[in-house]
Write a structure and sequence with these properties.
By secondary structure, the protein is of the alpha+beta class. The chain has 15 helices and 12 strands. The strands form 2 sheets. Strands 1, 3, 4, 5, 6, 7, 8, 9, 11 and 12 form a 10-stranded mixed sheet that branches. The chain has a two-stranded antiparallel sheet with strand order 2-10. A hairpin with a 4-residue loop joins strand 3 and strand 4. Helix 10 crosses helix 12 and helix 10 packs across helix 14. The longest helix is centred in the first third of the chain and has 40 residues. The protein is elongated, with a radius of gyration of 31 Å. The relative contact order is 0.18.
Amino acid sequence: MNIEYFISKRLLFTKKHNNRYTKPILSIAITAISLSFIVMLLSIMISSGFKNNIINKVIGFDSHIVISSIVDNPSFENEPIILSDSLYNSIISIEGVSDINVFATKAGIIKTKEEIEGVVFKGVSSDYDWTFLKDHIISGNTLDIKDEEKNIGVMISYEISKKLSINVDDDLIMYFIQDPPRVIKFKVKGVYNTSLSDFDNLFIIGDIKHIQRLNNWQKNQVGGISVRINDLNQIDEMSENIYYALPYNLQSISIKEKYSQLFAWLELQNINVLVILILMIIVGVINMITALLVIILEKTNLIGILKALGASSWTVRKIFLFNAMYLVFRALVIGNSIALSIAFLQYKYAFIKLDPEIYYMSFVPIDFNFLHIFLLNLLTIIICYITLILPSVIITKISPVKAIRFE
């Protein structure tokens, strides 16, 4: 049996060794470490959930990569591109591409008896993936767009529905400013709410054939091509690969480039979490060092006896490191239990709310990434152990004779 572990175990679990003065100090240290770990764990789960939630919404509404004409047109009026069979095959055959679909956008005005609202009509085709909007639909249904016939149905956001007092099955009259001006009457088939105000306040979704007719385009002319990939971490590499596979008059833009300010803001959140982690680790380490010094002070007589019996300084240090690490493990068990319980309740019931106008979601999101949880626990243990080695050096300075006489 490991002698250091045996002695440490006896010290920990023999009640007569527990001093009534040091016990409250150790309890405070365990509590402080637990609270620090709770803050660290919740920060990581909330930050990761926040980032994933926003990115998934942006990708769901748009796509990973957009192919468009290289002509610089900052408006919502697309320059047409021809989707030939060769272009389609050259994109879909790139390793890592999971799906492509076409779209086109055109600015217009919705007019009711009381209100006027400027919007962008986003036309999609039969190849459009409705999974994202199905998850965020609050009334009605998604559109059933077919290649053979034109669909007069549209989906509008909850914000537009509320502003204009338009609901499912109501008529929607939209004016397109061109020469000559055109008017189309649509039928509202569904209302969605993504909490992404930049999208919800602007877009309505409908059949791309309306834009093709308004712009006098052919059937194979579209405003752009949305490309979805298998791995978001490879988006820069995939965007470059797609760019080199395109003809000279087309370009590819990733969501990181298209929404650079949003991604810069998300990166700033990572810095905030890193600052929190560093501060909480410092708090935990300071409390752990204090607890170790208190244990050493309490057991000074024992240190002298062990040294007098021939135990090396490193052997005695290991005994007290075992003691200190037991406190760390105990604090981590408490911290994990409380943090994961809070996270599960928030994930299940979403009782902590947010303002969607500011945070792009209505509640605090939680991401249960168990790899991150394991790594945070492991990192905390390693840092605590390394930092506790240094203050344990004080044991080597203790004289056996003086230690035995210590009161």
